[in-house]
Design goal:
With 158 residues, this protein is of the alpha+beta class. 24% of the residues lie in helices and 28% in strands. The protein has four helices and seven strands, in the order βααβββαβαββ. A seven-stranded mixed sheet has the order 1-2-3-4-5-7-6, with helices on both faces. A hairpin with a 6-residue loop joins strand 6 and strand 7. The longest helix is centred in the middle third of the chain and has 16 residues. The chain starts with 5 loop residues before the first strand and ends with a strand.
């Protein structure tokens, strides 16, 4: 990672780059299919780049960051949903706090809120630890509507 991080609207070029990302093991469920390009160029996905415009990760907000779940009323309107993805080769490099703080600062400015919610696959201890370190607390565990996999809803309020 070279220099300061920027957050810009996701482009088709960056989306194509994300398609080449390969997460290993249990994290392989985060690998994207070709439909990702249309989904992420919707104005609600944003690219993290370094000062040389190299793609480091991306974030999304709103409905795109939610998971379809069985439980009713788990998603109230008082929180902005946030999703965050870091390029696979940068995972585990202690960059997550910088990414999440930049994402939340960006969201505060763009959406005028400081109440955030993240829905994280329950197995993803790395992401849950990162969120906890960034001031999120566990709200509840929920079940994916289709896969029946467990997810953890975490919130942060300032």
């Amino acid at each position: 990672m070279d220099g300061e991080m920027k957050i810009i609207e996701m482009t088709a070029e960056y989306a194509h780059s994300v398609l080449t990302w390969t997460y290993e093991g249990v994290y392989s469920r985060y690998n994207h299919g070709k439909d990702f390009i249309d989904v992420c160029t919707d104005g609600k996905h944003f690219a993290f780049t370094d000062k040389n415009s190299e793609l480091l990760g991306y974030c999304c907000f709103g409905v795109e960051a939610k998971v379809p779940i069985e439980e009713e009323n788990a998603y109230d309107d008082n929180f902005l949903d946030v999703g965050l993805h870091i390029r696979p080769d940068l995972c585990g490099k202690k960059l997550g706090t910088s990414f999440i703080n930049a994402c939340l600062d960006f969201a505060k400015n763009k959406y005028g809120t400081s109440s955030f919610r993240a829905t994280i696959a329950s197995f993803n201890e790395r992401a849950k630890t990162l969120c906890t370190r960034s001031g999120f607390y566990i709200e509840q565990e929920v079940t994916h509507l289709n896969t029946k996999n467990k997810f953890t809803i975490m919130k942060r309020e300032e």
